[in-house]
Amino acid sequence: MSYENFRFETGDDGIALITWDMPGRSLNVITESVMDELDAIVDRVAGDDAITGAIIVSGKDAFSGGADITMLHALFSVFQKRIAEDPARAKAQLFHEAGRMSRIFRKLETCGTPFVACVHGTCMGGATELALAAHACIVADDKATRIALPEVKIGIFPGAGGTQRLPRMIDTQTALEMMLKGSGIDAARAKALKLAVDAVPCDKMIDTARAMLASGLDATKPWDKKGYKPSGASRVFSPAGFQLWPAANAIYRKETYDNYPGARALLQSVFEGLQLDMDAALVVETRYFAHVLQTNEAAAMLRSIFVSMQALNKGARRPADVPKHKFKKIGIMGAGFMGAGIAYVSAQAGMEVVLIDRDQDAAEKGKAHSAGLMDKAISRKRATPEDKEALLARIHPSADYSDLAGCELIVEAVFEDRAVKKEATEKAMAHLSDDVVFASNTSTLPITSLAANAKDAEKFIGIHFFSPVDRMMLVEIILGEETGDDALAAAIDYVRAIKKTPIVVNDSRGFYANRCVMAYLLEGHVMLDEGVPPAMIENAARMAGMPVGPLSLTDEIGVDLAWKILQATKADAGTEILIDPRQEALLEEMVAKRERFGRKNSKGFYDYAGRDKALWPGLAEIAPPKSGDDFDISELKARFLVTQALEAARTVAEGVVTDPREADVGSILGFGFAPYTGGTLSYIDFMGAAEFAALAARLGEKYGARFTPPALVTEMAEKNETFYGRFGAEHDAA
Questions:
Q1: Reported pTM
Q2: What is the number of other CB atoms lying within 10 angstroms of the CB of residue 272?
Q3: Average pLDDT of every residue of the chain
Q4: What is the domain partition of the chain in residue ranges?
């Protein structure tokens, strides 16, 4: 019998070698076809008396990326159609289909023939659950080995036995941390936790597994043996359990504010399942998994954080007819914090980097930033001294613009000032060939106006990085009015080469991300003026799902920079853009009168002492607070989300954003917009345009015209439309 996704071989020793090697894919994933074949393989192994054991190994450079998330996304879509016809039957079908992988793994676990999983490289999600179901796991003792259950990051949780096997195999607290954080462990950690029996060189795994099977590996898991009793905190009603579970629930609430049904269901599944035998526990897990798959949060996160992000990472917006650019040498103008970060990620991608600044000392300081980042990586055992030496050798600091000759791409990252950018651009242009793409890392200045300083506006484009560059995964690519396809393709190729996610937007002041961020900051500043206590502002924002409060974020960006941007906006746009006088007065008081510039000078909305910070008591002098009882926390939360979603909708109405996937992915990666919503436009879509418009109108009546929905949203509300239905693929509609 042959299989499409597996090779099945047996030798004289009676051991079946099952090699998972999906055709046409660089990485194995669990699909319907894979489950069909694995189900049949387990039956074949169990039904053949000549087979005494089985080994599962990957034929790829890694074990597996886990379940094909598009399969789960499709499962949700099918459920939505079925439930309209027959709700009870739809839920029963969803429960059955959602539990299929779990049933196959349970069959493998109880088939009576021992299985050994040999894991090397990436092993994620459902693949990790497969390894947990095997009777033993051997991992490759290699830095590429990474084992994780990351499902919570995309709105779901390990639903194929992970919530039941992991806390029975290792310390329950460690199991919960691993699943709730979704972080991976390396080979040494897997062995230390006893998830892996051994860690050996990759080419020794199969021989080690054969020897293990030959010595008589037990085909019955501990929890399937008579008299099994859980130990430690896995006994829920025990002293250890009483210590763990109240704390676990408190930490969950603190970290998520109960916004994530997947994380909540994970805790419930573990808590309830540990009180049952394995078969009953797996049924409980499947029920919770099927429940989570029905939530808007899971649907939104699956769509944005996986399906849409994957499409954008593959270059969904790249012009198809332009040859691919492979950059060997790039130039970066400006060795400040942003330019130095761009140099680091470019050199990390293997490119030679010419790093230009006003003098050699400033350029050398920019290179030193990369040295510092590599030192941190070395201290965390994520890099070696040799890696550092090689990376630094690719960065060439200079004050001579003629060194830019021969560069295939230029990224300008000088100070956010028109005159400074003009001077730097003109100096660079004197040494560049006509076919070089020139990109400006501006955060607010329109690209079309900056392109006037270039030789050829078709070769001029915006590439907006977010700070800190080494950690932020989004890059906003901005098209000027004359930007050509070659420049767009080059920008996307570069962003993909440095392993970040590109979104493409049209020109406008603030583009997309910063427009939404500025709306968020404005709301926090206005609340302060209204007398909302500063701590309540920050906490309401976190409760709404934002990673940091608006006052803290202003400090990180720079209160002085916010003030400069406001002044530059007034100078450029005059009365075309309405500046809120309350915000202007607040920033002027903070910056011009009190010299509180933010974290950079340890004085902003917070006072800073090293890593510690506390809200500045002097805020009470600028904006006397009222009692927290005077404000509705749910309304404060809504204001933070609605104001950003409205600005996102305006960018669509103005043609700045043309693809709803980019608005959603950009909002999550770029400024941390409540991930459980799926992003700014998904927030509107899943609420419904009519309900959203009504909510915005109520806020507008109370707080001002900034909450007035654009005509586009009003029209969509009348027609019962969604952004994905109107501007995206119909099958992706909420």
A1: 0.92
A2: 17
A3: 94
A4: 6-294, 329-506, 514-732
